[in-house]
Design goal:
Elements (H helix, E strand, L loop, with lengths): L5 E2 L2 E2 L7 E3 L4 E5 L13 E6 L4 E2 L2 E2 L5 E5 L1 H7 L6 E4 L7 E3 L8 E2 L3 E6 L5 H13 L2 H6 L9 H5 L2 E3 L3 H46 L7 E3 L7 E3 L3 E4 L4 E5 L15 E4 L17 E2 L15 E4 L1 E2 L8 E3 L6 E3 L3 E6 L5 H13 L7 E2 L3 E2 L2 H6 L1 E4 L2 H44 L7 H5 L5 H7 L16 H10 L3
Parallel strand pairs: 5-11, 18-23
Antiparallel strand pairs: 1-2, 3-13, 4-12, 5-8, 6-7, 9-10, 9-12, 14-15, 16-27, 17-24, 18-19, 20-22, 20-24, 21-26, 25-26
Length: 479
């Protein structure tokens, strides 16, 4: 019997079975060191797995690289269906079962291949490693004074539960079915979140283009992303309604003069959905600033330059106390007396969601500069209608956010249940019978968690294909 399974000297994962080190039942082989060039005529270029390809949900084949392997290496390092691949580097201990998908595939030295010697179950070992990884055991044995490595020797020495092979296979089959059911439920919830995001965008576009006073005559705005608008609304370039200015240009270092100087906001302080994230702090000497460089409450910050087309156009509302400035990659929009800043922020958000800024000029970075922004045409309702529109968008956003919070709570519950179920099964706290496997492992608890939400928690039962319409009907209802 191997030494008890311990974390930092204490046995923390008791099981009803004896424990033995992994190499007694499995062969562990480390992959080949990277070889980008051919070194002998015997070598051929072949696909291989690296640590990024090994995910808990399975092997990711979307980005497979190649390198050179000799005939001997191909014989020794060929993956076979049912092999377990375990990360030696990267997220150490993360593993997946190789099921094929590539006729002949091999693996590099950031990955260990684990293959059963006789009757042991590689799938049971997958769940065992998942459990002890999330319990902190693997991180404890690899150490983190330098870059962590789960070497073949360390992996071989990991103790594992020596359950009878028939029980290992039974537990693995039960967990495969149960986890598949939970994962399907989580995927359904994530689709609902995507639906909600589409509804939020659609609701904002609707009220920003049609207004909230039905029956009014309409006209073509001349703006493709907006369409028709009430006939009495104006359409002007931003420069006639707002001031647009660059921030200051200088080299910053994270944490520079923290708490000593003037806070300066950078691109990293704007989230993709247009909120301020103040985790990253930068400060500068106030002597470098003029009075015109300081932000005022109610200013908007527009990201005009970014390496990602999806971030160009993100716009945040500034509402901070104290003296704050901003960098040159952010444009400051200061609204005039006939333009509500919340309305302007919502309008720019609708254009961004419609992909308007995704076509920004592609130089070193994607750009939509000050000149282009000043020439951008915007709809300008009367100020009282702008405020009405903003209140309605806020109301609908709150509806969506309430639903989103409820769905995210369900996802968190499902995720925690999945982790708990694996722990209970591989440690013998829950004994799995053939009847459990025959029922596909779908317990009453899982069915309940996978059921569609009810009106009582702010959501509607749907048949998935009509999710968008059902949610839209609810979000669009006015009090």
């Amino acid at each position: 019997m191997a030494a008890p399974l311990t974390i930092r000297g204490q046995k923390t994962i008791p099981t009803p079975w004896q424990e033995r080190i992994l190499k007694r039942d499995f062969e562990v082989v480390l992959g080949k060191m990277l070889q980008p060039e051919q070194q002998s005529e015997d070598e051929t270029e072949e696909p291989y797995l690296r640590s990024a390809n090994v995910q808990w949900a399975g092997v990711d084949l979307s980005d497979i690289k190649t390198m050179w392997f000799s005939s001997r290496e191909k014989k020794e390092l060929l993956l076979k269906a049912g092999d377990l691949v375990v990360n030696e580097g990267g997220d150490v201990g993360r593993c997946a079962t190789w099921t094929g998908g590539i006729k002949a595939c091999y693996f590099q030295n950031a990955v260990n291949r684990v293959r059963p010697r006789q009757k042991a179950s590689a799938r049971f070992l997958y769940y065992w490693l998942y459990n002890i990884k999330h319990a902190g055991f693997i991180d404890a044995i690899v150490g983190r004074t330098t870059i962590a490595h789960l070497t073949a020797e360390k992996l071989e020495a990991i103790p594992w539960a020596d359950a009878p092979p028939s029980e290992q296979h039974r537990i693995a089959a039960y967990l495969d079915a149960s986890c598949a059911a939970i994962d399907a439920a989580v995927a359904a919830k994530r689709r609902q979140l995507e639906t909600l995001d589409a509804i939020r965008k659609s609701a904002a576009h609707q009220v920003l283009s049609e207004g909230l006073r039905p029956g009014l005559p309409l006209k073509d705005s001349g703006i493709e992303s907006i369409g028709v608008i009430p006939a009495h609304w104006d359409v002007k370039q931003i420069r006639y309604a707002c001031e647009v200015n660059y921030g200051i240009t200088l080299q910053l270092e994270k944490g520079q003069s923290v708490g000593d100087g003037v806070r300066i906001l950078t691109v990293s302080n704007l989230t993709i959905d247009g909120n301020l994230d103040l985790e990253d702090e930068y400060y500068i000497d106030p002597a470098l600033l003029t009075k015109a460089d300081y932000l005022r409450r109610g200013d908007l910050l527009f990201n005009w330059r970014n390496g990602s087309q999806y971030h160009v156009g993100k716009t945040a509302f500034f509402d901070m106390e104290g003296e704050v400035a901003h960098v040159s990659f952010l444009l400051r929009i200061r609204c005039g007396r006939h333009m509500n800043p919340f309305f302007m922020r919502s309008y720019l958000g609708v254009l961004k969601d419609a992909g308007f800024f995704a076509g920004a000029k592609d130089k070193v970075n994607k750009t939509f500069n000050s000149t282009e922004l000043k020439r951008l045409r915007v709809v300008i309702p009367p100020l009282d209608e702008q405020k009405e529109v903003c209140r309605e968008i806020e109301r609908r956003n709150k509806e969506c956010n309430d639903v989103k919070a409820a769905i995210e709570t369900q996802i968190a519950t499902l995720t925690a249940y999945r982790k708990s179920l694996i722990h209970e099964c591989v440690t013998g706290q829950r004994r799995v019978t053939e009847a459990d496997v025959a029922r596909s492992g779908v317990s009453k608890d899982i069915r309940q968690l996978n059921s569609e939400p009810s009106e009582a928690i702010g959501r509607l039962e749907t048949n998935h294909s009509d999710d968008l319409q059902c949610f839209t009907n609810r979000i669009s209802r006015r009090p």
